[in-house]
C-alpha cells in the first residue's frame, strides 16, 4: 500500500514539475524575448538582496529554526501524505481487531504503524486512558504541531517581506553611485543596472520562491491536521467500542464522495485478516 502511495505521489509530483517547468519557461521568455539577457544579470544587485535577506533572517530567528525549515521543506516536497481513505481503513481494522482479539491486541499495531500520530493514539488506547484523557492528549499534540509549523512558515514569510525591501536598498545604492558619477558615462552605466535589477531580484525572490514555499508548508500542514483529526475521532470511537460499521460510516463522512472507496467491514475481509471462522458472529 505504501508503495502504491509513493507511485501516486510521484505521478502527482511529475505533473507539478511539468507545470512548473512550463510556467518558468513562459516567465523567463519575457526576459529573453528582446535578446539581451545580460541586461537582467547583475551580481552586485543580487548579492545585496540575497545577503540582506539572509542576514535579516539570521538576526530574526535561531539557527535551529532555520534548520527545521529546511527539514520541513524536504519532507513537504519529498514525502507523500497518507491517503485519508487508507487511514479510515486502518482505524476500522483496529475496531474489528479489538472486538475479536481484545484491546491489548492493538499493541502490535502500535509498534508496527508508520504514522507517528496514529501510533501515539493507539498507545493511549492500549494504556487504558479514558476518552477525555485521549482527547486532551491528542488535541494538545495537534495544537502544538500546528504552532510549530506556523513558526516555521513564518521564517519564509519574513524572508518574503524583507526581500523587496533590500531590493530597494540596492536601488538606493545604485542611485547614489549614479549621482556620484554625474558627467562620467562609464560610472552611470555600471550603477544604473544595480539600481534597477536589485528591485527586480527582491520581487522575484519574494513572490517566486519564498511565498510559494510558505504556501506549500501551509497546505501540507492542513492535510496532516486533517489526518490527525480523522485519527482522533476514530480512536475516540474505538475507545467507546463503537460498532465497526458505524465507525466506518462516521469516518467516511470526513472524506469527499469520490474518496469513499469500497466497504471495509465484511465477513470475507475479516476472515482473511484473522483467519477466523467465528468472526462473523463477533462483528
Structure description:
The protein is mainly α and 283 residues long. The protein has 2 domains: 35 residues; 228 residues, no CATH class. It has 11 helices and no strands. The longest helix has 55 residues.
Mean pLDDT: 81
Which structural class fits the helix and strand makeup?
mainly alpha
Percent of residues in β-strands: under 5%
Total count of strands: 0
Q: What's the gyration radius in Å?
A: 27 Å
Poorly predicted regions are 1-7
Helix proportion of residues, in percent? Answer: over 70%
Domain tally: 2
Number of helices: 11
Q: Specify the biggest β-sheet.
A: none
Shape: elongated
Order of helices and strands: HHHHHHHHHHH
Q: Report, as a whole number of angstroms, the end-to-end distance.
A: 25 Å
Provide a short characterization of the protein structure.
With 283 residues, the protein is mostly helical. It has eleven helices and no strands.
SSE layout and pairings?
Layout: H1 2-32, H2 43-60, H3 63-78, H4 84-101, H5 107-112, H6 116-126, H7 131-180, H8 185-239, H9 244-252, H10 267-274, H11 279-282
Any descriptors?
283 residues; mainly alpha; 11 helices; disordered N terminus
